[in-house]
Design goal:
heterotetramer, A: alpha+beta, eight-stranded antiparallel β-sheet, five-stranded parallel β-sheet, 23% strand, B: mainly beta, eight-stranded antiparallel barrel, four-stranded antiparallel β-sheet, 16 strands, 0% helix, elongated
Chain lengths: 505, 165, 505, 165
């Protein structure tokens, strides 16, 4: 087993991997950018080294620098987490050349699956059911022709893409050109690769994915499905396991296809095969993610396994400690991705300092967080603050538990998408599991049902606002007492207040 | 103490009197007693007729609100005597509306140069932040009066980027 | 199902029950004493009412007041948690008379099991294996005679006792009299009942208990065992499930006895049958706790069930939603009880204000806490701050996970027993599960192996102390900047510092 | 800045110089560079030669310590110039030792009245707090010189209860 592991990532996933390494008795090496010196993953690790400036290209994407740190620190393996270098095969090869174990699949498998077009070809060869479309990069003109042939609506996707970046839905010929351009430039920006292709859109599909795990001795097992249909602009927002529409039979069939897809790619470590599932429960191969997924915890909770522990064991050459028939699902798990973004304003990112952080806990609640009270969320990276996951005996109680957990969660000083989850979790269609990949965008388009918040609550809020102000008002005449509990926090209010001519504070 | 609380647009008058057992409150003339505790700065626990509320104070970029559960109430507490506050009624001066940057970022594309006729909701420019591209749309039907930024420019939150008339 | 439930308790268990009620859509009514106005259970509940002064007898033990609140608030049921009124049959009867459902067993069962002496008689009748000793209260003289007959060492126990109060170990005739007196006075103080009895001591036994759950339709199921041998002065400190010495066969035999004990007592709701297990794995009935146990979460994690949810369903008249054969154990769970007490000073309670609270989280970690940063732990009640529970696929990884969680836990401003767990979790005998009820007291008697903390760490600590001081040093001449991050916390240091003539701060 | 740090009894001399890239430290003459961040009051993250330490500041009842992981180091930071600090070497004056209350509570029983000869570790009195009875033991073999409290008395933390000579 490795003595020392470098984590080439930041935020909550870096912390989550550091925890796994610690639990397995491995020393941890963190890397950080100028923006992250005070980040949680730095103080949680046994060692930490600066990579460079905040810009990802100069830090978390800087292969040479990461490997230099690995060499210097004597790390025997590197876990890339997700995002950043996690699906970069050049990095995987560079690790091999540097004699450091890359914790993930072989570079060849990453390259095959990394290019959606080549992946399509390979999967077609392996008779994996596919969505109609192009199997290679296209010019704007070719895209227009193909779209005309297979018919609108169509999706434009970045060949090197992932996470919805460089992805555009086109409903009519008129929109194609500008969408193509945006997708291409976004792809270029995000992946240094402008290649895009085109696929027919399956109307109102579910996004259901299968977790696979494979060792280096040819053993491949699937760990059931995750229901990831709740997406905003193709970004997953809420995930759960199991899926309400997947029964034992469908699970076995999808799992078998996923395992065979992984096998045909010579896959090892943890990976995910994504499918679109239509109303008739036909499933089509979407793509394979050659890394740990953000939503991996829901699978961990229903299977009772720890995927990062398994990744580490597998990378160290161990065999899978269980067989397919040993895998059993218990209960229901749901994950909400807590982002620093403003649901009331186009979900614009809301970086800034977290002035107050109240985190949920208690029975069945897991909070995989990368932030702390006082931390300033930098503008430079993905604004995910935390993954909130719950586990309960059944879906109904899991939903109730998540509602309870969300109601306990408070992040002061920045906007978050917490209020959005309240809306989702109470929506009758979501409660009934009547969801598809368009559900959330439709929900967001509909007016936020101005549920007449009991005027009682209005009263309490009004009085509270006055109370907060009163609590910081100086005792007549002399200045504010320095032991004033309210002082620190209300300063922001006072500033704003002054502009508005508030009662002298 | 007397406060004028503008909450969700409505203006409420709050009178507070600290008593032995708590706070005597008068809200728009209605009296009630509140048992209040401040567990931590920015948080308070208030009991009214036995009902318990955990109230949080939220301040993001000078925008203040009160949070109860996940319900948000934007508020401003004013001194009735202040006149300054009387002004600033509507933000909208003679039909010209500003498009402002909701957060720091970089202008990656201008879609509607000055002079362009635009529909309400039509994209005027695209800014990128945290690796996401976001289109900023025209708040009204009209004509792009002027653009204060060019492609590639770095912008601050709240900065005025364009005006539509 | 109930619309509104009153929780007649405080601290972490009150919060845990409030969470369960919320998840089941029931309104919650909290009660509190003068010392607890700002407590977490008050702000988490939908309603909260003052009971009276801090003294438990005037608040949490005040039956009339609690029922008055129930009546006033319209609560349909009362959950007593553990401690306080949870095993008080008079309270259970008073609830019935007041037309409020007591969430727990029938008063008769509580009375039978509540008196250890009567319980012994009943269990003997039911042929449950017993430890030799008296089955009734004794005078000092009778105790001396009986002890002489069955031989030393013996245990003196309060008939109404629980949680180690009014309990004394006597190894030699000389110690008997004073021990008897202390036990009696402690019992009187704690339970208003000085009756004590005597039992032979089983040398180096394990304390292993069986969780049972029974509905009001005659269905009784056991949920496996908990290993609770890690005790300090008969107070459980660390619990786990399953036990390393209990195999399927022993589990079935102990479970069967436990179920039959519960049945003979006409038991309903959640209860625990405690056994002593000797080296040859013979088990002897110790007592039955007619309430939810502090350590119930380890059972929840390995069974995937929620015991408080089940208690509520059962109290509402529902049938158990599963049968014995449906109960399966998965993985391993460990609980540590985090107390505000000083392990370096006889575990004296350490009340005070929590100036900083860093709580562990992440995979497999559950923190059932009743405190928050800024909360002042009152002197008036049991000093438990939180229950920290971990779950992992096997015991070894559960131990590693708990070590990791403990290393993340920090409570500033008061002393806690956190350092103790570090010692326990690293002890070779505990790691090998070679434990008995005397293990911890022996460990504590042995010198805290002054594991030469790497002088490197000494250096870091020394420099850090200076850094904290330097960070608050005023820029030459003018006063401290008010935005100084260090200001608030170092005040205590400064105070102490001044007395010692520190560099002017 | 120069500090004298008494840590676990030992006295260390710490010299700190803030530089651009961090802090230049000299510990008992040994030099090293520390990269320091203060994430929150009372916490610091310190990097030395790439090793990362999360250090917490602990103050309980005027007793100060540094916590790293679960390891505790009791410390006092002194100004070398101060003389006051020079005194208070040993706590133990001419063989008389105090028994002090480690926390607030109530004296429930006196086991060894003044004049009683006691062994080291023998219980002298019992105080009750948080529903637990705790025996306070004699720190030395000798004789109970005097008792400052009687049964039933409420006592404060740190209060001297008895003296053994």
């Amino acid at each position: 087993m490795f003595k020392k592991v470098l984590i080439a990532n930041r935020g909550e996933i870096a912390v989550r991997i550091i925890r796994a390494c610690r639990e397995m008795g491995m020393a941890t090496v963190a890397v950080f950018s100028d923006a992250d010196r005070a980040a949680l993953h730095v103080s949680h690790a046994d060692e930490a080294y600066l990579l460079g400036h905040a810009a990802a290209t100069e830090s978390y994407l800087n292969i040479a620098k990461v490997l230099e740190v690995a060499r210097h620190s004597g790390a025997q393996a590197i876990h890339p987490g997700y995002g950043f270098l996690s699906e970069n095969s050049r990095f995987a090869r560079a690790c091999a050349e540097a004699g450091v174990k890359f914790i993930g699949p072989p570079a060849a498998a990453m390259e095959l699956m990394g290019s959606k077009t080549r992946a399509r070809q390979a999967m077609q060869a392996a008779n994996v059911p596919m969505v109609p479309g192009s199997a290679r990069g296209l010019s704007a003109q070719e895209a227009a022709d193909l779209a005309a042939r297979i018919g609108f609506p169509v999706m434009i996707k970045a060949a090197a893409g992932g996470g919805g970046k460089g992805m555009r839905l086109v409903r009519a010929p008129g929109e194609l050109e500008s969408a193509f351009a945006t997708a291409q430039s976004e792809a270029l920006r995000a992946f240094n690769d402008g290649e895009v292709y085109l696929e027919k859109l399956i109307e109102n599909p579910r996004h259901i994915e299968i977790q696979v795990i494979a060792d280096e001795h040819g053993n491949i097992v699937h760990l059931g499905e995750r229901e990831c249909s709740l997406q905003r602009r193709h970004q997953k927002v809420v995930e759960e396991a199991p899926s309400a529409v997947v029964d034992e039979d469908l699970r076995r069939r999808m799992g078998t296809v996923a395992v065979q897809a992984a096998r045909s790619a010579g896959y090892t470590s943890a990976g995910t095969v994504e499918f679109l599932v239509d109303g008739a429960r036909n499933f089509f191969f979407l793509e394979m993610n050659t890394r740990l997924q953000v939503e991996h915890p829901v699978t961990e909770l229903v299977t009772g396994l720890d995927l990062v522990h398994l990744q580490l064991r597998i990378a160290a050459g161990e065999k899978l400690p269980f067989r397919q028939e040993d895998v059993a699902l218990r209960g229901h798990a749901i994950e909400c991705r807590i982002y620093a973004e403003d649901p009331e304003n186009n979900f614009f990112p809301s970086p800034g300092t977290i002035t107050r952080l109240l985190r949920p806990s208690g029975p069945g609640v897991r909070d995989d967080s990368g932030v702390y009270e006082g931390w300033t969320v930098p503008l430079d990276y993905d604004p995910m603050l935390s993954k909130l996951i719950v586990h309960a005996p059944d879906r109904a109680s899991a939903l109730a538990r998540m509602r309870r957990a969300i109601s306990e969660y408070f992040v002061g000083g920045i906007k978050t998408n917490l209020p959005l989850f309240q809306r989702i979790l109470e929506h009758p269609d979501f409660v009934a599991a009547r969801i598809d990949t368009g559900f959330l965008d439709r929900l967001l388009a509909s007016p936020a049902s101005a549920k007449a918040s009991s005027s009682k609550l209005d009263d309490i809020a009004a009085v509270s606002a006055a109370l907060f102000t009163a609590a910081t008002a100086p005792p007549a005449g002399n200045g504010r007492r320095s032991d004033d509990p309210q002082r620190s926090v209300t300063s922001a209010w006072k500033r704003a207040a002054r502009d508005e001519g508030i009662e002298r504070l | 103490m007397i406060y004028e609380v503008i909450i969700q647009g409505k203006t409420r008058r709050v009178e507070l009197l600290r008593t032995g057992s708590g706070w005597q409150c008068k809200l728009d003339g209605k009296d009630f007693l509140a048992d209040v505790a401040f567990p931590r700065p920015g948080l308070l626990s208030i009991l009214v007729d036995g009902k318990s509320y955990e109230v949080k104070q939220q301040a993001v970029a000078g925008e203040n609100s009160i949070v109860i559960g996940q319900e948000r109430f934007s508020v401003a507490v004013r001194d009735p005597r202040s006149l300054a506050s009387r002004r600033r009624a509507g933000y909208d001066e003679q039909g010209v509306k500003k498009i402002t940057a909701p957060m720091p970022g970089k202008v990656v594309r201008i879609l509607a140069p000055a002079g362009t006729a635009v529909e309400s909701g039509q994209a005027v420019l695209v800014i990128e932040a945290m690796k996401m591209q976001n289109e900023l749309k025209s708040p009204k039907k009209g004509r792009v009066k002027k653009l204060n930024v060019s492609e590639g420019a770095a912008v601050e939150a709240g900065q005025s980027l364009a005006e539509v008339e």
